[in-house]
Amino acid sequence: MTQKSILITGCSSGIGYASAIGLRNAGWRVFASCRKPEDCVRLQSEGFDSPLIDYADPASIKAGLAEVLEATGGTLDALFNNGAYGIPGAVEDLPTEALRANFEANFFGWHELTRAVIPVMRAQGHGRIVQNSSVLGLVTLRWRGSYNSTKFALEALTDTLRLEMRDTPIHVILIEPGPVTSKIRANSIPHFERWINWEASPRAEQYRRGLRKRLYEDNGPDTFELPPEAVVKKLRHAIESPRPRPRYFVTTPTYFMSFLRRILPTRALDWVLSRV
């Protein structure tokens, strides 16, 4: 039997890295892409094919996918769009340029890679496109306006693509993690420091007492936090099941927030979310 192949983005750590290891152990040929060359080199030293793909760099998307297709003879069974980052800060303090940059990496680059993969999957007669969204694609939390926005946009685009692909053998799937162990908080610090002039904000005291402590102080795992392997379990079902679900919830908060979104009026849901 021919070994199945998957391209996973954002594999330097967290969900991407755990997915690369888990699927390789399950017999998949994993192309574990990273944004930084040094991370690609590290993964190559661990035995992975690791193309360089930076969602904010269209040339790297084209070259990285070409590298994958050359290695597989022009086929690809599954794509797991995963790499993303956040820019913590209040919406009123978020420069529009920062929001554009975040959308480039969290949304537009995903769309570009997905569009490039679809003709390959059409030609081979099958494929799975899995998008790693978030509980923050279902509900919003304060101080995360940029990340919230990219995930809500991803949800809408993916739902539309799934409807449009119903007449094809390509399955389009969303995974909805909540609190999962990763470096996303630490990785957001340079973006916060670059873009958010918090000391000049009318919310400076709120930053000082709240957001900055959350960013810079390690207080251990979040409530209900799960290891990234919990996502890998759902990913395997999404790409291996003959009948994958359109959505996979991973953590307790994701199930809970999805339920609350359905049953609560907006004011009541706002009250709940303002206390998180």
SSE order, as H and E? EHEHHEHEHEHHHEHH
The residue fraction in helices comes out at 40-55%
Number of helices: 10
Structural class: alpha/beta
Q: Give the number of DSSP strands.
A: 6
What value does the Rg take, in angstroms? 19 Å
- Rounded mean pLDDT score: 97
**Low-pLDDT sequence parts:** none
Q: How far do the termini sit from each other? A: 49 Å
Residues in β-strands, percent: 5-15%
Biggest sheet, spatial arrangement of strands: 2-1-3-4-5-6
**Global morphology:** globular
Main pleated sheet: 6 strands, parallel
Would you kindly provide a written description of the structure presented here, covering whatever features stand out?
With 276 residues, the protein is α/β, with parallel strands linked by helices. The chain has ten helices and six strands; from the N terminus they run E-H-E-H-H-E-H-E-H-E-H-H-H-E-H-H. A six-stranded parallel beta sheet has the order 2-1-3-4-5-6, sandwiched between helices. Strand 1, helix 1 and strand 2 form a beta-alpha-beta unit. The longest helix is centred in the middle third of the chain and has 29 residues. The model has no long low-confidence stretch (mean pLDDT 97).
Keywords:
276 residues, 51% helix, alpha/beta, 6 strands, single chain
Topology overview:
Blueprint: E1 5-8, H1 14-25, E2 29-32, H2 37-45, H3 58-72, E3 78-81, H4 96-124, E4 127-132, H5 145-164, E5 170-176, H6 184-195, H7 204-216, H8 229-240, E6 247-249, H9 252-263, H10 266-273
Parallel strand pairs: 1-2, 1-3, 3-4, 4-5, 5-6
Helix pairs in contact: 1-8, 3-4, 4-5
